[in-house]
Design brief:
By secondary structure, this protein is mostly helical. It has five helices and two strands.
């Protein structure tokens, strides 16, 4: 992946920029319903910021199941939880997330493209299965 910096930037730059924005001026982009969102520059669509952060963390949780040297993601999970609950983000939370993302970026850069692609595909399958299970639960069964 080290030879594909544009892919690493596409994956990590949005969250890194978000942390920079929170650190700089303490603001988040909110939907009309007051939910933190991330607007993708590519398609202009707004996505749940909590879901984006959880997705990134869960993808590397899958990587960690395969390789225990993959950095831990607890700080990203904590960030998502705080954002979901309108919790107070401290400077330590922001700094920890910066460090976590830097470690995850370095780890991803060390992987062959095919291995990272497989992790992404596995995460996508997991997310789809989770959505189907949630839909099934909502329908009663």
């Amino acid at each position: 992946m080290r030879t594909r910096p544009w892919q690493l930037n596409a994956a990590f730059a949005p969250l890194e920029s978000l942390l920079d924005r929170i650190e700089r001026d303490g603001t988040l982009e909110l939907s009309e319903a007051g939910v933190p969102v991330y607007t993708a520059s590519g398609d202009g669509k707004a996505y749940s910021l909590v879901a984006v952060i959880q997705g990134m963390a869960e993808m590397f949780d899958i990587a960690r199941l395969r390789d225990p040297t993959c950095p831990r993601t607890e700080l990203l999970h904590r960030l998502a939880e705080l954002l979901e609950q309108d919790g107070l983000l401290t400077p330590a939370d922001i700094a920890g997330c910066h460090q976590c993302l830097a470690a995850l970026r370095a780890y991803a850069a060390s992987l062959p493209h095919q291995e990272m692609s497989d992790i992404v595909r596995t995460a996508q399958i997991k997310f789809r299965l989770d959505a189907l299970l949630e839909l099934s639960d909502e329908e009663g069964g």
